[in-house]
Prior knowledge:
The longest helix is centred in the middle third of the chain and has 15 residues, at 105-119. β4, α2 and β5 form a beta-alpha-beta unit. The chain has 10 helices and 11 strands. By secondary structure, it is α/β, with parallel strands linked by helices. Helix content is 38%, strand content 18%. α1 (39-51) crosses α2 (67-76), α3 (105-119) packs across α4 (144-155) and α7 (220-233) crosses α8 (237-248). The mean pLDDT is 96. InterPro entries: Aldo-Keto_reductase, NAD(P)_OxRdtase_dom_sf, NADP_OxRdtase_dom. Pfam families: Aldo_ket_red. Keywords: Oxidoreductase. Residues 19-286 form the NADP-dependent oxidoreductase domain. This is Aldo/keto reductase family oxidoreductase.
Amino acid sequence: MSIIEQSGTFNLGDRSVKRLGYGAMQLAGPGVFGPPRDHAAALALLREAVESGVNHIDTSDFYGPHVTNQIIRKALHPYRDDLVIVTKIGARRGTDGSWNPAFSREELTKAVHDNLRNLGLDVMEVVNLRIMFDVHGPAEGSIEAPLTILADLQRQGLVRHIGLSNVTPKQIAEGRGITKIVCVQNQYNLAHRADDALIDDLARDGIAYVPFFPLGGFTPLQSSTLSDVAARLGATPMQVALAWLLRRAPNILLIPGTSSVGHLRENLAAARLMLPDDLVKELDRMASIAS
Length: 291
């Protein structure tokens, strides 16, 4: 059994993917804007990821913009049959690199076509609708209008499955009343666990949960606790954070991003890291550590 196979699998739509995938955001330049510093290294990283068994890549055409998808196409097209590429729409980049909502029919339709063209695909396997009522996190508000547009694009055959990103439980319930939702992508990690109940609810319904920022927003004391546990295990803090997420729930799919082949290998090795119960309890308490 290869290292990544030890992470297990879960269904994303009607496709089975390994639970440890790759997030392509960091393939773009600084601030996820413009080209990478080393284009050849970005190509090599993607090829190694797939050769290592990664079959779930998360991307978006607003990374760059366009840059990341064009790199994915150059590195991996024609794609392996088992590779699932997931994108997201609902935002556009300003000339200053800003992130702006893009929810009109014209913007969402263009975004789907841009992803298809730059990735070299006829249909997107999964498209996540990124809700932009607040750039920094989920905020309440109806998602009916943009989601209905995305569902129309699905009926046209451009999209197979639909997911949601940066959303509240209320918005997920609203979305599921409009169309089938196969995944939810929100910030979640050892320290930020607002979605605990949601993850369990989605697991019962067979819906994938894809957390981002596995080390995002930790306090110094939380970071110190994680580093201490990692040192005792002879692992990196990122490996421990990823291993904890894999253990947290069977429907969690991980998409750690990096622009370094070395870090990619370290991240994938988290699939074989076993966390003793006493250390899991110590890690679980991190959410309550405030400073």
